[in-house]
Amino acid sequence: xxxxxxxxxxxxxxxxxxxxxxxxxxxxxxxxxxxxxxxxxxxxxxxxxxxxxxxxxxxxxxxxxxxxxxxxxxxxxxxxxxxxxxxxxxxxxxxxxxxxxxxxxxxxxxxxxxxxxxxxxxxxxxxxxxxxxxxxxxxxxxxxxxxxxxxxxxxxxxxxxxxxxxxxxxxxxxxxxxxxx
Amino acid sequence: xxxxxxxxxxxxxxxxxxxxxxxxxxxxxxxxxxxxxxxxxxxxxxxxxxxxxxxxxxxxxxxxxxxxxxxxxxxxxxxxxxxxxxxxxxxxxxxxxxxxxxxxxxxxxxxxxxxxxxxxxxxxxxxxxxxxxxxxxxxxxxxxxxxxxxxxxxxxxxxxxxxxxxxxxxxxxxxxxxxxx
DNA sequence: ACTAACATGTAACCCGTTACATGATTAT
DNA sequence: ATAATCATGTAACGGGTTACATGTTAGT
Lengths: 181, 181
Hints:
Chain A has helices at about 1-10, 20-25, 35-50, 75-85, 95-100, 110-135, 145-180; strands spanning about 15, 55-60, 65-70. Chain A is mainly α. The N and C termini of chain A lie far apart (about 50 Å).
């Protein structure tokens, strides 16, 4: 049931189309919750049927028309209530760590390659995080309450990301010493 | 396809029954990959049919007999090959962070409560990690290669966990300042 | 003509979760 | 008796992924 509420969260400030939501789920909120456009369109239909969203067509010039969705009063209420529901603890699953349990001289350089890739991806992500932090969250104490929550999420992302980079370096050093040449 | 390989990874050193595997997936390998007994029994059947595992019955006194599963040569080979396959990047999904995007004076103390719970869970997990590290990984340089991989996974778990604790404290401080009284 | 970005959907499949089910043995 | 631990399964459901599908407009 979390996808529905993630979508509504994304609609808290502006109304948006399915296409725009799909794009948002690749950044911003998407740092902490991902969804494909196939999921999103399905969920938008369900949420509209349930009366939590309403939609209207927006005519555009120079591109196809779009349907934009916004929260109804019922949607706002449902979202606010959801925050108070008990959160199921998140499962940390990572295939790469399972692979590390199979470390051998043979596969060490392959695993180092994969960790190197992850490291590069994380560098890119941290760059995006930092850009957002500098632009929108440079004075956290002055933020409106809701944005302080976003700031906290962002802070966790940055800290965990930096920690991950440091771990990658340690792992790469150890793997280099283990690899067959 | 990761569950199958996680199970085989758990069988690398000893053969085990479904029940024992289910228990293991609550600790050790289970720190990085979880599975319920329902999943495990299904997967054991499939893996046996595929010829990657074989099973034999072990008669026990004082408790029900059990079926123990072990890797076949084909299973070993399949597992070794899997390590070289490209790992799909892991999605970080956390409902609690999405909830933080909905922070308000009303829900701040509830969210603080949930973060406090997470903090306590992580403390417990770190305690388990540390116990294992002290017992089995106090001299990482002397470990056999495969265990060095396990050590790396454990190290990541510990570092991320400690980082998470620090973040919880920061978050709790901010939430306290926001909460309505 | 072709590519890229905009825009929206359906269908099949796989995997994980929840619920349901059964039965042995030991300890209280 | 009854609870706890050991031990093994089936079935239904729901959510996420992959594949399939279509159509517009702008730019090269």
